[in-house]
């Protein structure tokens, strides 16, 4: 457990598994999806921690664990030194005043049958903070804060564009004056021009209100722009964690290097000179993850040690103390992996589930 007063949220050895069951009357658990499988993270007060990785790596599940929407299978998550995994329903309700979430889909996260004023005002109603004219005044102030017209208080979500809907989600998250906001891919469903507007809004709100963000995204350029530190996840585990500029300038995990090589480069001449690392094979199934390092079936630097032994997430030789890498054979400065292929023989990534008689 961290004793650093600057650490607002601490994730310690967190696992989240989803059971797979078969049977009609007597359902029997036959396997588990290892969505999050032993993650350690710390979120410091006032910073933006970016989390990146392929679809299915566990980013959104981890976000829901941090906000208390998913109970953890094992491990602990502490907020200001208190273990939220042991909170009662009453404690959890109070905790959610401090930790809020902005969801990915600005269409699915808003009830189309309710007016915007009631959607943004829900937190006030749930926590019994304001009602009547006072609630309407606070909601309209929030709408103005996020760049919406307060006069549109009685409109339905369908009357707003995608970017405006996401601003409604931001206003709802800000209602209770939280300290931490978990942004689960808040701009991935928006046009590029609208993405920039929402990102700038979030940055302005952070400066004005002193917010702490956990920012999840697929777009590496967006994560680099907004994040102080970045955690790279692969198949439920943290592959690398470092300051944003350090990670982008000198990635140490082969998976991080491959992700960064896929980033779009605006300059066509520079893009033509850049070397793309093409990973072989598919992402293994989270139902039956590989032994040792989970990236070894696709890694161009993998050796037998990677198959047998799980690497620790630690600072490797020559790296700063806050640059952590889970790799036995990290990428060396100047090393190119673009022409390398996976050295471990590929195996099927499809899990074989036992048959259960009904």
UniProtKB/TrEMBL annotation:
SMART domains named among the record's database cross-references: AAA (SM00382)
Name the domain of life: Bacteria
Write out the entry's keywords from A to Z.
ATP-binding, Nucleotide-binding, Transport
Q: Which Pfam families match?
A: ABC_tran, oligo_HPY
Query: Domain named ABC transporter: which ranges?
Result: 20-260
A GO biological process held by the record? transmembrane transport
The molecular function GO annotations come to: ATP binding; ATP hydrolysis activity
| Spans annotated as Disordered | 336-358
Q: Please give the InterPro entries that the UniProt record associates with this protein.
A: AAA+_ATPase, ABC_transp_ATP-bind, ABC_transporter-like_ATP-bd, ABC_transporter-like_CS, Oligopep_ABC_C, P-loop_NTPase
Quote the SUPFAM superfamilies the UniProt record gives: P-loop containing nucleoside triphosphate hydrolases
The UniProt entry's sequence similarity note says: Belongs to the ABC transporter superfamily.
What's the protein called, per UniProt? Dipeptide ABC transporter ATP-binding protein
- Provide the taxonomic classification: Bacteria, Bacillati, Actinomycetota, Actinomycetes, Streptosporangiales
